[in-house]
Amino acid sequence: MRKLQNKVALILGGTSGIGLASAKLFLEEGAKVILTGRKQRKIDAASKCLSGDFEIYQADITDFESTKKAIEKGVAQFGHLDIFYQVAGKATPILFNQATPKVYESEIKTDLIAPIVALWNAKQYLNPHASIIFTSTTFSTRPAPTMSAYGAAKAGLVQFAKSIALEYAEQKIRVNVLSPGSTETPIFDELGLPEDQIKGFKDFFRMVTPLKSLGQPEDLAKAALFLASDDSKHITGITIDVDGGLNQSWHLVPEA
Ligand SMILES: NC(=O)c1ccc[n+]([C@@H]2O[C@H](COP(=O)([O-])OP(=O)(O)OC[C@H]3O[C@@H](n4cnc5c(N)ncnc54)[C@H](OP(=O)(O)O)[C@@H]3O)[C@@H](O)[C@H]2O)c1
User: Which of 9, 126, 173, 183 is deepest in the core (most CB within 10 A)?
Assistant: First the structure.
């Protein structure tokens, strides 16, 4: 029996990187999958490379109404939700002294408020024994220069997840967090930095990661599958670091 047979998964931010790899694996494991993303080009590409029972909707997670509508359309199609999985997020590396309050507002809206609002709008469709998964980052536990906005927002998300895990326990709904270390996805291209600087980031993270490699989206997808499936039915309120040991390393200090 496939691990997600008869389950319906909502993946917010599923058209690229970790979300797309997870969507592929979830479909292979028998899930029906509802995906969201913003850019039409990525939606078209994802539609072509996925196979199985899925629906993709264009919805920005920070546009609460459009995400709510996407959730409603997906549920109208598939009936209910067994897996709520937030992947959509953004990183804005910037020094505090160079940032404006707007940078913080924007980070906190995307990486903390929007996932909470999305869950708020999805919660009525969750089946008993559902699995809720949020995506954080090593920077939620390990401080680094330029990462105060991103790290603060994601740390808030982790604490939110752990708190509601206790509230949902009575209903046997589980809430867990995936915390990727540096992972080879198109997120680096979204930073708008020159190629050599991106290469520099990747080289740096390869060097400071104890396993001396970057993560692959599939590494996260496999951990997401574990949290989504009944294999983790006695696990709630935890964070799984899929980071090659980065969260245990003493050297996480990227150049400002
Ligand atoms: N890659 C890493 O090194 C790394 C490390 C630590 C944590 N993370 C976390 O992992 C998550 C996924 O990252 P990734 O590396 O897989 O990134 P990615 O390849 O850029 O994929 C992000 C996905 O989310 C969608 N998305 C982004 N912003 C969105 C928004 N506002 N509303 C709806 N969809 C949105 C993207 O599509 P559109 O662009 O079309 O919206 C895409 O489908 C993020 O939460 C990130 O913070 C990543």
Answer: 9
Distances (CA, A) of 175 to 26, 218, 234: 18, 21, 11
**Active site residue ranges:** 150, 154
**Residue 137: CATH number of its domain:** 3.40.50.720
Summarised one tens digit per residue, pLDDT across range 56-71 is 999 999 999 999 999 9
**What confidence tens digit (pLDDT) does each residue in 39-56 have?**
999 999 999 999 999 999
Shortest-distance Cα residue to atom 23 of ligand 1: 13
- Which domain does 236 fall in, by range? 8-244
The residue whose CA is least distant from atom 20 of ligand 1 is 187
pLDDT digits (tens, 9 = 90+) for 114-124: 999 999 999 99
Confidence of residue 244 (pLDDT cuts 50, 70, 90): very high
Ligand 1 atom nearest to CA at 42: 40
